[in-house]
Design goal:
homodimer, alpha+beta, Glutaredoxin, 4-stranded mixed sheet, 10 helices
Chain lengths: 243, 243
């Protein structure tokens, strides 16, 4: 045994939630250490020692400090005993395919879904991010979900790629319902896959997303107040979340 | 045996060069199939069948089609017999650290070094990319190269992360010498590491970069002609390559 596992996370961050869900689902014993981004705790000397890049998520496992969520998920799958093989298959070809999706995630879905909701005050960046997001959704629908099974690559059970990408897309929850519907509804396989991944990883999926659902409620109330006070025109409101 | 390996590449692309160098260096038998990006060959139906995302590099190995350069390098390291362990260590912890650097590469160095030389006509994007590049170089210098050995993570032999990141940085070769010096010279460890990786992977490193050195010469001549004709002010010229 390598000793204690600490997970340094902020549940408002989608890759952090993926790691928490993975650990809980697989019975990995760990301590959740909150790094509150809104309070700049990621810049503290204590956390910088764990991750000199000052980003969550990060883990400390015995002497090993590790960051980047994909690397962490792959590590946890390999380092802990008894993790079901479907999460990160040992088969060289299946693993290569999952790595390929995870790499694709970096420069596509991650790039699109993050900024799409994170930069409402910069309409040009938001529009650009939405373009990337829609293109990514189309690729998910027509390439990655184009198989027999319900999960990525036509698999019958989820992998760390399903978990990672669905957590990314769930970030869209904070959007206005109409916006979320407009963006996601053309992608029927994607919608089914989000539901299937949610189901396969519950109750932990819901538990870790509670914070997001609460944020969503808050944003809805804000939007209602703005609409009532009439300070925004119909044209401006709701294209992107008011996060 | 899985059958024939085809590598679909354009040597003008840095991740393509990394894969070619890796294969040659490790005696992997393959066929190089040129996908000329400048001629839009990546959009052809034949190549789309290999990579529906229409990007190089991609490989076809028996029935397996695979894309994303990191996933390809990891796959080649595992699927072919006799590849030295230092390229992609089987040790779970060392592999996790290398994966972490490769993931970091996606949203940092890759994002910075690519656009820094690719968008000379968009000064704002180029300036933003240079900022990312300088921050990435500083992290390489102070975090990733902060160990006993000459390679990333203080290793004494190169991994696929060294190869991948050094190929990225070599793209800066096409810059004006003064610009390249201005950008790289403060980072002594980075400069040493580029040289060490080049040496460790020669003669294939030079062979695969010849195309870039030729492009560099062409750009230099273009810059000289522009300077002589006086069509650009001193202020404008040379901040980024005229690629």
């Amino acid at each position: 045994m390598m000793g204690k596992l600490n997970a340094y996370v902020d549940r408002m961050s989608q890759p952090c939630r993926a790691i928490l869900i993975f650990c809980r689902l697989n019975g990995i014993d760990f301590e959740e250490i909150k790094v509150d981004i809104a309070k700049s705790h990621h810049l503290s000397p204590e956390f910088t020692e764990v991750n000199p890049l000052q980003k969550v998520p990060a883990i400390l496992h015995g002497n090993l400090n590790l960051f980047e969520s994909h690397a962490i998920l792959a590590y946890l799958s390999s380092a802990f005993p008894g993790i079901a093989d479907h999460w990160y298959p040992t088969d060289v070809i299946r693993r290569a395919k999952i790595n390929s999706i995870l790499d694709w995630h970096h420069s596509n879905l991650r790039y699109g879904a993050g900024p799409a909701i994170g930069r409402p005050r910069n309409p040009k960046a938001a529009a650009e991010a939405e373009k990337v997001l829609l293109s990514s959704l189309s690729k998910l629908e027509n390439i990655w979900l184009n198989g027999d099974g319900r999960f990525l690559l036509g698999s019958f059970q989820p992998s760390i790629a399903d978990l990672s990408l669905v957590c990314e897309l769930t970030q869209l929850e904070v959007l206005d319902e109409m916006d979320r519907g407009r963006i996601l509804s053309p992608y029927k396989k994607v919608l089914g896959w989000i539901e299937d991944t949610r189901t396969a990883t519950n109750p932990y999926f819901e538990e870790m997303h509670n914070i997001l659902y609460r944020a969503k409620k808050k944003f809805q109330q804000q939007r209602s107040r703005i609409a009532e006070s009439g300070t925004e025109t119909t044209n401006n409101r709701g294209r992107h979340s008011k996060m």
